[in-house]
Amino acid sequence: MKMRKDEMNRDARRMALIEAALYAAGRPLELKTLARIAGTRSENVVLRLIGGLARRYEEEGSALEIKELPGSRFVLQLRPTYTEKVRRLANKPLLSRGPLKTLSFIAYYQPIEQGKVIEARGRHVYSHLKRLEEMGLITRERVNGKGTIIRTTPYFADYFGFSHNPHRVKVQLRRLFEQLKIQKIENLKNNGNGQKRHKPLLGKKASVLTGSWDKPVEKTLLPQDFDDS
Fold first, then answer.
1. What is the average per-residue pLDDT within 214-229?
2. Is the pTM of this model over 0.70?
């Protein structure tokens, strides 16, 4: 009986540690990371505990949910039902306009040499790259003969709602830029007629990323088009 109670207490503590890790991270965490935090080598144990935690949120009618993502990763997030209602209460955006421009440029042209990012965006973006890397949105890899190669991460795709396939990301970005262009034209037209603005055509996070540009990211743009305004 005592052993059973000890086991239940251990599971409760491990579940609390997993919950704390997901909350503190604010981003998807791999199963092996959660196992390390929970103090166990058994991924099956962690999966069981995550399942129990997810069921608890569901049964309590919580505004939070645990979602499993590709690659055995898990994230603690608001249920979509509540996201729109509390979005305006968010303390601050994920990134300011400048780093968002740098991030969308990388996402569109990845994999891309760091030197080309600096050439297009300016030397001030070194601080952007450091910040983006610290946030887990990009990786920088030193490659012999090619310098430093930059790519976006799975967390970038999950956060902004893009594909994990870099080629698909480019297609999605191009489509979003086109939607944003149409949306701006329609809103200007409606405002001129005294009508209400159209609701955004894009998801909030994706529109924030693409909306950081005054014009779409295209190869025809010159370096001066990538200023930090």
1. 38
2. no
